[in-house]
Amino acid sequence: MTKNLLTSISLLLCCVFQAQTLHLYGGSNQDQYLGCLNCDTFDKDSIWNSFGDYGNILSSKSIWNVNGNYGSTYSTYSPWSSYASYPPAIVDQDGQFYGYLTLNPYKSERSELGLVHILYKNHDAIQKDVSGWYDKLFR
């Protein structure tokens, strides 16, 4: 019975978390929309849609653009800069804050979500195959 209860609670928590659509906002005032963190690869706002504004490695609004403000390892606005002062904020559709997406270990309120840790560890590989990594992570 205890096993069934734990399984039910795990499934419930999983469903509740999945229901939260998480978004990225960047810039010094976190007013630049940078896409949806956990949306489907076919969603136009998804950071996993390599044909959309937020998943395309050439887009100025993409965290995967290594030459852009939001994807460069040297930019103060990029999650991939270890010294970023203004990394993207993660918020849900209701505006609840889930921390900052940043490699900077000294940034207060750095996000510790499970998905975010995968991004921290694999961002270089993900930039080379955004859609493929979506499949690895979500399917």
Task: Describe what you observe in this structure.
This protein has 139 residues and is of the alpha+beta class. It has helices at 2-19, 114-128, 130-138; strands at 22-26, 32-36, 89-92, 97-100. Strands 2-1-3-4 form a 4-stranded antiparallel beta sheet, with no helix packed on it. The protein is globular, with a radius of gyration of 15 Å. The model is unreliable at 4-17 (pLDDT under 50).
Strand order of the largest sheet: 2-1-3-4
Radius of gyration: 15 Å
Query: Unreliable segments (pLDDT under 50, ≥5 consecutive)?
Result: 4-17
Could you say which overall geometry the principal axes of the C-alpha atoms support? globular
Number of helices: 3
Straight-line N-to-C gap: 30 Å
Strand fraction band? 5-15%
Sheet with the most strands?
Answer: 4 strands, antiparallel
- Give the strand tally: 4
The average pLDDT is 89
Give the ordered list of helices and strands: HEEEEHH
Helix % is: 25-40%
Indicate the structural class. alpha+beta
How would the blueprint of this fold be written?
Layout lengths: L1 H18 L2 E5 L5 E5 L52 E4 L4 E4 L13 H15 L1 H9 L1
Antiparallel strand pairs: 1-2, 1-3, 3-4
Which tags fit this structure?
four-stranded antiparallel sheet; 13% strand; 4 strands; single chain; 3 helices; 139 residues
Describe, in short, the structure shown:
With 139 residues, this protein is α+β, with helices and mostly antiparallel strands.
